[in-house]
Transcription termination/antitermination protein NusA (Sulfitobacter aestuariivivens), 540 residues
Amino acid sequence: MAITSANQLELLQTAEAVAREKMIDPGLVVEAMEESLARAAKSRYGAEMDIRVSIDRKTGKATFTRVRTVVEDEELENYQAEFTVEQAKQYMENPEVGQQLVEEVPPVEMGRIAAQSAKQVILQKVREAERDRQFEEFKDRAGTIINGQVKREEYGNVIVDVGAGEAILRRNEKIGRESYRPNDRIRVYIKDVRREQRGPQIFLSRTAPEFMAELFKMEVPEIYDGIIEIKAVARDPGSRAKIAVISYDGSIDPVGACVGMRGSRVQAVVNELQGEKIDIIPWNEDQPTFLVNALQPAEVSKVVLDEEAGKIEVVVPEEQLSLAIGRRGQNVRLASQLTNLDIDIMTEEQESARRQAEFELRTKLFMDNLDLDEFFAQLLVSEGFTNLEEVAYVELDELLVIDGVDEDTANELQARARDVLEARNKAHLEAARALGVEDSLIDFEGLTPQMIEALAKDDVKTLEDFATCADWELAGGWTTVDGERVKDDGTLEPYDVSLEEAQDLIMTARVMLGWVDPADLEADAEEDGEEALAEEEAEA
């Protein structure tokens, strides 16, 4: 193909046609053409030459130029695209380093291979421009619902035409029993929009909890207006879901508003989600109350909350156990996701048996270690004592209130408990030293001998080792994997060390080692205090 004989306006007409089809700037297509022609020219004049092509935006005329740059003598590397100051004097007056000499060169004859290469460059540039345009259009629409049309299915993934490009609904983001055919209309949630080198950039979902929340927002005007808020959503897509709602207007029932007249509002959402059953429950800032609501329709007898561990025990009547757990654990699993709590459900009989077992275990602890008879040991347990530390270091008055315990008896009890604990501590420290624990960790305040031995078994043997620990490695924590809460056990968790206590201990160690300036901690504390005060004033 000879550029010299081509219709010059044809370039512009082609650029405009491609731009209209792909909905991109015609200038980007022209730039792609310029680059493709420049590559073809380099194959004719030499790859090392700096050949550039400029297409006139009005006439379509393509101008080919060779560019050479003036460089220092010692920097001259490419003799085809660079020349020295001395060499440049032949072409320009008083040349300076960095100046460029632009010379027009004859257009090239493009063979079949060069033409094909140029076409590939144009297609690549057009695709890049199209993807950039698509990303810019959708990057701020993540978290919203969009209607699309099914184009095709690839390996279980559905490719959806969303008007300005293609998006993908992955297999694991489809509701289980859904199937689609080309040209089907589909409503989807834009889960993520991100730049990718290849493949789709818009990722859709119909299983995301946020999809259900957005559907309710569309059906319930009070949610759209902010009068009602969806606080949490838990889903078993296509089967069952729970949503927690709260009303900021005392005259509006949040559950009733979401259900609608004769269930019209919730039914619209159910129909969109292929019959997924939805429990709408009132949200409550009191976690036990919220959990009781979340376990509906089961009736709950009692709730015991361990806030530090994020765990809760629920006691239900025997006949309510299967209802509380649900089919294949569905009800309790959804309630756990909704409340963000680890839930342990037991019957009243099971709780009674567990309490009896704990009572017997603590009774035996006091009998074996304090040399007490069964009656006296049971008396201590009944008064709320659970371990030797409580007996050893409690205020004497708390022992004296027990029937039959005078001052001498109380002193003797504490002396026995302290002797046992001191012997244990000595054994723990000896074991820790045998494992290689250094004195820097043994002398660190805030850690008991039992804790030090536990740390040593976890390969934490110096103060430096301890200072590099994360708070959750010590106190334990929870992570969410595939929608399920997974427990991470902490080294010091058996000793009731909270996350806050772990953070304080770690930071103290870092200060002692000189890793952290105490002044910085004080400044951070003041800043946090000011922010908290500002938030309180804003709420007021």
